[in-house]
Recover the amino acids of this structure.
């Protein structure tokens, strides 16, 4: 190893496992830990992690070893500086002396020089073909990066990509649990407070209609009745706010909440499983896909006589796929899924206009599987 080649300091630290980072379900905590591991595993003086936050633009959101704030929250467009080159080429890039390098542009020389950074290595954070950001390791003296340091940074970038995916799924799960709890509270309030208000209101009306009621008492009862009506109106508005899903809800959270409502309504065990991070479709496609899933669940409720149903969501090759599988009586004991009201037949027509489709097959053991496929574009 030459005098100017840098390798990881602390041999024991190289035993770090990527699973340690993936276990951190909070993305901010995971990114801070990733930055710390960059310094620990590569011997870097400074570590930076950028996340894609707009088309062609990354922002440095995590760091370790910095002495100044110039690189904190730095916006890095594709093609500019070392990080922009990583984004543009989608491969590791390095410079031995940042300020003198002719292989990169120099829009960020001021904050780089303020940190005293000379040598720098950047590695893309990737999930499949998608670039999620980049990880930097930087030294405050000129030099080269040894093979072990480069391999360590690549491992951290891969673990960071997986950690971001896991954190995204955890966020969706928490959002779905919150929405399901809101709906549960709404149902409980409707069944308890709503029922009490209705009962009291009916008793007040009975008293007012009693022929022996004095005018003074009738007037007071009228005031009570109007107050009860206002309270009922306020309760209905509150229940609507609790039951409505937010406009920016995710597909995963919406389907999970639908499964929770399905199970509470029917007593049939229902689970939603998200196998991959889900890019959100545009609003019209969102509604069509959700309608297809809900229609499949409705068929299970009406015809399947099932004890359980599972909705699986995944994204691959530019498509969203939803699979609704039950353990019921199968097609022989149910209506053909394409008939009856709007049905899956109407949903199938809308999906086919978008290049998607619906397939209904009978399972070998029991029940029916509905596979819904919709291109994202």
């Amino acid at each position: 190893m030459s005098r100017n080649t840098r390798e990881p300091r602390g041999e024991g630290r190289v035993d770090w496992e990527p699973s340690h980072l993936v276990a951190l379900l909070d993305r901010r905590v995971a990114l801070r830990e990733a930055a710390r591991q960059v310094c620990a595993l590569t011997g870097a003086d400074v570590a930076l992690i950028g996340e894609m936050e707009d088309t062609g633009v990354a922002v440095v959101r995590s760091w370790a070893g910095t002495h100044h704030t110039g690189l904190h929250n730095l916006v890095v467009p594709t093609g500019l500086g070392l990080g922009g080159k990583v984004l543009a080429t989608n491969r590791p890039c390095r410079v031995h002396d940042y300020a003198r390098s002719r292989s990169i542009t120099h829009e960020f020389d001021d904050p780089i020089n303020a940190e005293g950074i000379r040598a720098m290595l950047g590695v893309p954070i990737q999930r499949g073909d998608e670039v999620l950001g980049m990880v930097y390791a930087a030294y405050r003296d000129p030099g080269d990066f040894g093979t072990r340091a480069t391999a360590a940074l690549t491992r951290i970038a891969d673990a960071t990509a997986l950690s971001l995916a896991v954190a995204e799924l955890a966020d969706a799960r928490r959002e779905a649990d919150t929405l399901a709890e809101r709906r549960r509270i709404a149902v409980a309030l409707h069944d308890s407070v709503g029922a009490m208000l209705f009962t009291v209101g009916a008793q007040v009306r009975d008293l007012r209609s009693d022929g022996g009621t004095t005018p003074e008492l009738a007037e007071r009862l009228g005031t009570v009745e109007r107050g009860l009506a206002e309270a009922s109106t306020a309760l209905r508005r509150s229940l609507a706010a609790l039951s409505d899903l937010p406009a920016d809800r995710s597909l995963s959270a919406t389907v999970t909440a639908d499964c929770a409502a399905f199970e509470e309504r029917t007593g049939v065990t229902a689970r939603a499983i998200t196998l991959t991070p889900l890019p959100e479709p545009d609003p019209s496609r969102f509604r069509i896909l959700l309608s297809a899933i809900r229609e499949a669940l409705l068929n299970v409720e009406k015809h399947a006589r099932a004890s359980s149903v599972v909705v699986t969501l995944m994204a691959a090759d530019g498509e969203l796929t939803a699979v609704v599988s039950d353990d019921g009586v199968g097609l022989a004991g149910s209506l053909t899924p394409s008939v009856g009201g709007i049905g899956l037949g109407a949903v199938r027509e809308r999906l086919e206009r978008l290049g998607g489709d619906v397939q209904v097959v009978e399972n070998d053991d029991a029940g029916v599987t509905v596979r819904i496929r919709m291109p994202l574009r």
Summary: The two ends are 51 Å apart (CA to CA). Residues 147-209 form the longest helix (63 residues). The CA atoms of residues 49 and 135 lie 5 Å apart. The first strand starts at residue 5 and ends at 6.
